[in-house]
Amino acid sequence: MKPYQLTTVGDQAISIEFPNEINPEINLRLQALAKIITADKVVGVQAVIPAYHTLLVTFDAMRTTPRKLKQQLDSIIADQLAAPLPPKRTLIIPVCYEDPYGPDLSDVADYAGISTDEVIKRHTGKSYLIYFLGFLPGFAYMASVDDQIAMPRLSKPRVKIPAGSVGIAGIQTGFYPVTSPGGWRLIGKTPLTLYQPDNPEPFYHAGDEIKFEAIDKETFDVIKQADELGHYHVKVVTENA
Amino acid sequence: MHNLSVIQPGLQTTIQDLGRVSHQIDGFPVSGSMDQASHRLANLLVGNRGQTACLEFALTGPTLVFRVATFIAITGGQFSPTLNGKPIPENEAIRIHENDELAIGSANAGRYGYLAIKGGIQVPEVMASRSTTLRIGIGGFNGRALQAGDQLPISPQETLQSFGHRRVNQAFLESFRDPQAMLQNPLVIRILKGPQWSLFSKSDQRLLQHQQYQLTSEADRMGYRLAGKPLTTNLKSLLSEATVFGGIQITSNGQPIVLLADRQTTGGYPVIATILTADIGKIVQCQNHQLIQFQLTNLKTAEDELQKQTELLQRLKAEFIEQRYQAPIGINRSAAQRIRGLFEGGFSKG
Questions:
Q1: Could you report the predicted ipTM of this complex, rounded to two decimals?
Q2: How far is B40 from chain A (nearest CA, A)?
Q3: CA distance B15 to chain A (A)
Q4: Does B313 touch chain A (CB under 8 A)?
Q5: Element housing A33 (H / E)
Q6: What integer best gives the mean pLDDT of chain A?
């Protein structure tokens, strides 16, 4: 039996649905499929939009039919499932966890029953997969943080969270690309500009991994200045999955 | 080359094409015109490609002064446009002379109107689209709705092939989208079962189809909130999935939201149904308090209806091409026509 289903959504989209769970392996398959479907320029396909366990493929109904597209997708997916996962790309994002950048850091430490240093160590100790981007442009849904520091959201969201803030919401972690309201527990801030309206395409994409690197306040200021001048280059590590 | 001056901006006038389709993967809303069929028709009437950027206006349109000669067409809702104070028709190509003032006026029926200008509006593309996404301030004119004093770049256009033939008649409009539909109450909107249809109880599935919903005042480019007897199925929160244009989400209070052009790219509410692409323009054009009745149909009907709409546009385009060398205005007579225009003033047709 196929490990996925193809479902027509409306009259101009097909959803590739894998089992209903947050699973990095499933998601990486979806990301690889998204790349292949885009690169293959399948006739009539307009866009691919990944989420946790689904990949929506939208098409122009004047150029293809759901039946034809489903056949093409079946064959692309069969090939992809038989292949190894493509190499992993990990981006190293500097984060300052010092005051005043991490207003909730001590709460997370209390919640976990460990020191703030230990929270930082756990948060920087692993890399996180970007499952998809949504909510806001460049807002990355990343998981999974260490269970012990997986503190639930604030019961009352903040009205204004500064751009660059790094937070935790249950097993999810992420950063706010623009200033916005939100309920995540803020534990630090990156000096990098994550969203530029005049050059809005983010430098990270669904399927990338993010690893946070702790920096002190002085380094924060140095990187911020360099980044604003366009001189800072995010470290990228590529390795086979 | 700032050649179109905004005198009054109207309620919410934005530059839109058919959307920033390929960047949803990075979380960018598609945006683009709410009523894409009307957008395509407007462009076709002035000889543009379907995706060319137009002005979209809502309920009250802008007043504009053209600093160059060109051709325009207005489609969508029924507004009361005037050129230099004289009424002009919608759904046909109109010649514009230097310094002509176009006032779109207010909607008598419908909600969104489209102004196509030959050659399009030449604001820069942002990620392969000129569409404005107001919520994040990108695209279009500085990422925002037009304001008085704005100057938009358009190019001078002296000729338009088959100019005198570029109009559609009532029969075309009725088959393209019955204008009487805007007066229907309740308005019938056809739907397909959505990805989470089967998670709803039988009685909720029936309720969705058999009750009349009312469009609330919470209606914007992101979505239209409808009000009716709430559905009762209480679903646990779902993992977020990608959204589609015309998806009908049921929120936690049991009421539907129809997802439209500026929708978020992903959402966690269950999608009980989706509106036929061919019917999206119809619901988009509803004014507040309009009654809506959903009618469940099948994929075959959805495909046929979309194809019918597309074929009507293709046939119209072919007719315009055929009429290229026919009276009253052939391509070689544009100079003669311009001279006549000088005598007749702004509102001259062949």
A1: 0.90
A2: 14
A3: 17
A4: no
A5: helix A24-40
A6: 94
Please say if the pLDDT value at position A174 is more than 50.
yes
Average pLDDT over residues A39-51: 94
Q: Is the pLDDT of residue B144 over 50?
A: yes
The model's pLDDT over B252-310, given as tens digits with 9 standing for 90+, comes to: 899 999 999 999 999 889 999 999 999 999 999 999 999 999 999 999 999 999 999 99
A contacts of B195 (beta carbons < 8 Å): 7, 9, 15
Put simply, the answer to whether B244 touches A10 (Cβ < 8 Å) is: yes
Q: Which amino acid, residue A25?
A: E
Supply angle C-alpha A27, A29, A31, rounded to 5.
70
What is the maximal distance between C-alpha atoms in chain A? 60
CB-based contact, B22 to chain A, within 8 Å: yes
What's the whole-model pTM score?
0.90
Question: Which residue type sits at A221?
Answer: D
Q: What share of chain B is helix, strand, coil (3-state, %, to 5)?
A: 25, 30, 45
Cβ contact (<8 Å) for B27 and A178? no
pLDDT higher for B141 or B334? B141
Whether chain B has a CB inside 8 Å of the CB on A37: the answer is: no
Tell me what the mean pLDDT of segment A15-39 comes to. 94
Does the beta carbon of A31 lie under 8 angstroms from any beta carbon of chain B?
A: no
Q: Is the CB of A135 less than 8 angstroms away from the CB of B271? A: no
Residue B247 to residue A65, Cβ atoms within 8 A: no
Give the pLDDT mean for B134-148. Answer: 95
> What residue of A is the nearest CA neighbor of B195?
A9
Dist CA A86 CA A239 (whole Å): 9
Query: Which amino acid appears at position A119 of this protein?
Result: V
A162, A195 in Cβ contact below 8 A? no
Of B81, B86, B49, B48, residue with least CA distance to B64: B81
pLDDT over 70 percentage in chain A: 99
Residues in chain A: 241
